Amino acid sequence: MNNNKRSLTAHQDDFFSVVKALLVIVLLLSIAPQALAAGDAEPAAKVVNPGAELWREVRQREAPVAGTTQVAGMDSGVLINIRGEQWRTFRMQQLIPAAGALLGGVLGIIVLFHLIKRGLRLELGRSGNYLLRFKEIDRVLHWFVATIFIFLALTGLILLTGRVVLIPMVGHDVFSVIASASKEGHNLFGPLFLLGVIGLFIRFVSKNFPGKGDIGWLLKAGGMFGGKHPSAGFFNAGEKIWFWLVIFIGLTLSATGLILEFPFFGQDRLIIELSLVLHGVGAVLLVAGLFGHIYMGTAGMEASLESMTSGYVDANWARQHHDQWAEACEAEGAVIAGEELAKKQRLRGTKNRVPDRPAAEEGQ
Question: For residues 106 and 292, is the Cβ–Cβ distance under 8 A?
Fold first, then answer.
């Protein structure tokens, strides 16, 4: 009997122990979330993610995001710069379409002018007498600059418009080879263009200041309006304008090209971006002017190319286009007969000979 009572008492104690344990567990489960929340609140207020503000700026991209780095150099600590995307957008959406429109428009005007006017012909035909217009050093300098600029223009246009024009024609793989070669060649020959521009300035600056007859030449558009061909000296107003465009735009292209090619002068990203814009715009303007210059020096003006091949021009050509200079040469006795010039050229072995027959013998 006593044993049964002790056994019952033991079971009762075990039962109450289990109940107490369950109550304790329930109590703990009820207060644990509040305790954990209270415990987390205080550390969250004290500990701040050091990268939170940085990545918030990266996501917003409202300004260049800068950090700290041990790498030396301009903008080394800039994680992301949105101006690069702005330049890409300007290049693809504004510069390339405007360049295409300008160059295409200039070519269209040249073709239209040639179809209507058929160029400027010699009004009195050839005289058979000649004047020395450009010395050998002048011609060498001219073709040096012209050759380099044409090469730079072609490679530059490939780099500027190749993605739009060439990739659909030759594909990405071939274009990558062409673009890489264009970039290396452009960078290699670019500095030589600067030397040529400086040489042109030294050689011809004295003949390209404003002078008598320039205003009249501009008003008559070089003889397109007003009937009689306007008066001009050694260079007419149009040639003077072209000279100064070559000098100023050429120096701008050279300066910006050096900034882009050698980015260790201390220039920051903004200077490089401005250089890209100036380089692109200036190059397109100079190429557009080159189209007109090439046309007027070949098909656009009869007997004009001879001045840059042999150095001599027909006396009638000189009187028609540069009458002031022609009169000065004639007053100095500088006119050379065709037979005499042909003899000089034979003695020198000149390959680029000018026609030495009078107009009557040429079937005019």
Answer: yes
What per-residue confidence (pLDDT) applies to 273? 85
CATH at 267: 1.20.950.20
Same domain for 90 and 73?
no
Q: Which helix (H) or strand (E) holds 312?
A: strand 312-314
- Alpha-carbon distance of 312 to 3, in angstroms, equals 143
195 and 217 both lie in a single domain: yes
Contact 214, 237 (CB under 8 A): yes
| pLDDT tens digit sequence for 60-92 | 555 555 556 666 666 666 666 777 778 888 888
Asked whether residue 94 is assigned to any structural domain, the reply reads yes
Q: Confirm if 268 and 247 have CB atoms less than 8 A apart.
A: no
- C-alpha separations of 91 from 88, 123, 179, 208 in Å: 5, 47, 17, 35
User: What kind and span of H or E run contains 202?
Assistant: helix 167-204
CA 178 vs. chain centroid, Å, equals: 17
Coil, strand, or helix at residue 229? coil
pTM of the model: 0.75
Same domain? For 141 and 269 the reply is yes
The reply to whether 147 and 230 lie within a common domain is yes
DSSP letter string over 226-275? SSSPPP--SS-HHHHHHHHHHHHHHHHHHHHHHHHH-TTSS--HHHHHHH
By residue count, the chain amounts to: 364
Domain span at 245: 82-118+135-310
Integer Cα distance of 341 and 322 in angstroms: 21
Joined tokens for residue 64: 């260049």
Cα-to-chain-centroid distance, residue 295: 22
| Nearest alpha-carbon partner for 314 in 275, 346, 355 | 355
